[in-house]
């Protein structure tokens, strides 16, 4: 198989484009797709400092690499979720990536921040592991953004992720979510702007990008993801994509063009945000879902309710910035 652009030996075939790329042309293709997503959706502005949520997986490390090489000013944010060896390995690879490229990295430990890691937040609780984890990530990323003065957070959601979330939202007709699943979630009081620059790239493309760029990423799946509905939706879309290449892109891009404009005004009208009385985060009630979840965890552990609320705690964080240290 030959590269469709330069006729060198290809490393990846992309059936949805009826194309194949060698390593060099694949990297150029990924850069183009990210630049196009950023421009198309007005995601980023030159000069702003971008918080990149970095898990240590292929997507987030590819995203950080693409943004940093594209000349964007970035700070990586890694959340230590306390999921055993998986979390330890993820943190180690993220640190190595940042150190090798001289990039600034902020690490936040969920256990030290709120008194419990993801497995403890789930035990006996009402949320699934990914529900509790997602809530924790959203809360902590926002908190770091506020404390670091970041106006924008970039996440590594790719085309496969977005198409699978969209399928889940359609299957349940979650109209609120269908009106909010955009590649850019604008800044609202208490929430930094959220952007997803990888929405034009599939997992196969980000994985191949990492291999070509010699980025060492966590290959194993999170052990808490088993049985997760999102994975079932991904598998269903994979089967459709195998039969009809381009299905995921058509489904997701079609939603952005045709369905999002219909659902967005409804979601906007129905969303009334207040401020959480415990932590000050935006919420639809009086206390945010994260504060309610952590309180339940504390009660289960039969601890006396700490007098220190998440708002009053100082984040437990490490900062590594080889350049700053060298100065
Ligand atoms: S880390 Fe957390 Fe993911 Fe693990 S528990 Fe689920 S959400 S699968 S990206
Ligand atoms: Zn709160």
Write the layout of secondary structure elements.
Blueprint lengths: L11 E3 L4 E3 L1 H19 L7 E5 L4 H12 L3 E8 L3 H18 L3 E5 H5 L3 H5 L6 H20 L3 E3 L4 H13 L3 H4 L5 E2 L7 E3 L7 H10 L16 H15 L3 H24 L3 E2 L6 E2 L5 H12 L16 E4 L1 H5 L1
Parallel strand pairs: 3-4, 3-6, 4-5, 6-8
Antiparallel strand pairs: 1-2, 5-11, 7-8, 9-10
This protein binds Fe4 H S5 and zinc ion.
Account of the protein in words:
A hairpin with a 6-residue loop joins strand 9 and strand 10. Helix 1 crosses helix 9, helix 2 crosses helix 9 and helix 7 crosses helix 10. This protein has a domain of 210 residues: HUPs (Rossmann fold), CATH 3.40.50.620. The chain has 13 helices and 11 strands. The strands form 3 sheets. It has a 7-stranded mixed beta sheet, with helices on both faces. The C terminus is likely disordered. The chain is α/β, with parallel strands linked by helices and 327 residues long. Bound molecules: Fe4 H S5 and zinc ion (ZN).
How much beta, percentage-wise?
Answer: 5-15%
CATH 4th-level superfamily of the domain at 34-221 and 243-264: HUPs
* Spatial strand sequence of the major β-sheet: 7-8-6-3-4-5-11
Largest sheet: 7 strands, mixed
- The shape is globular
């Amino acid at each position: 198989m030959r590269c469709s652009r330069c006729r060198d030996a290809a490393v990846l075939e992309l059936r949805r484009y009826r194309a194949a790329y060698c390593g060099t042309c694949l990297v150029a293709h990924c850069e183009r797709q990210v630049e196009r997503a950023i421009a198309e959706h007005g995601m980023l502005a030159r000069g702003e400092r971008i918080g990149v949520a970095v898990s240590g997986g292929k997507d987030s490390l590819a995203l950080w690499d693409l943004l940093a090489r594209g000349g964007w000013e970035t700070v990586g944010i890694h959340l230590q979720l306390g999921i055993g060896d998986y979390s330890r390995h993820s943190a180690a690879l993220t640190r190595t990536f940042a150190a090798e490229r001289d990039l600034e990295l902020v690490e936040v430990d969920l256990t030290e921040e709120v008194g419990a890691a993801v497995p403890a937040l789930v035990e006996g609780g009402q949320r699934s592991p990914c529900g509790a984890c997602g809530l924790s990530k959203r809360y902590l990323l926002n908190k770091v953004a506020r404390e670091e003065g970041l106006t924008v957070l970039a996440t590594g959601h790719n085309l496969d992720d977005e198409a699978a979330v969209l399928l889940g939202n359609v299957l349940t007709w979650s109209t609120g979510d269908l009106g909010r699943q955009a590649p850019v979630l604008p800044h609202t009081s208490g929430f930094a702007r959220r952007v997803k620059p990888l929405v034009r790239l599939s997992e196969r493309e980000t994985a191949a990008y990492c291999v070509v760029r010699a980025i060492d990423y966590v290959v194993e799946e999170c052990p808490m993801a088993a049985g997760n509905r999102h994975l079932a939706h991904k598998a269903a879309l994979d089967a459709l994509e195998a039969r009809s290449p381009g299905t995921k892109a058509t489904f997701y891009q079609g939603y952005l063009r045709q369905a999002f404009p219909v659902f967005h005004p409804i979601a906007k009208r129905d969303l009334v945000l207040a401020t959480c009385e415990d932590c000050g985060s935006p919420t639809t009630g009086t206390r945010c879902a994260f504060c309610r979840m952590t309180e339940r965890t504390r009660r289960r552990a039969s601890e006396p309710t700490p007098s220190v609320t998440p708002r009053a705690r100082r984040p437990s964080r490490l900062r590594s910035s080889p350049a700053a240290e060298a100065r």
